[in-house]
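Annotated sample (chain length 71).
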Amino acid sequence: IKEDGTLYVNLNEVDRSMLKQELALAYRGQEGSSVIIKGAKHLAYGEILELMEICQNIGVPRVDLMAKKSK
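Output written by the structure step:
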């Protein structure tokens, strides 16, 4: 998720209203795997929590957060 709220699933831009459906489709066949969320540095934490909740709702057992190394 970008700082402006733009969402991507597997590098494809997704409209927020279709996010749950797109995540479920992308996750099909990957059951049991974790999902990795990459968010912009100054993104509100609530945005990340919302994404984590959506992942849980489609049956994702674990959500990981991707962090960028500080220089």
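Annotation: The radius of gyration is 12 Å.
Annotation: The first helix runs from residue 19 to 27.
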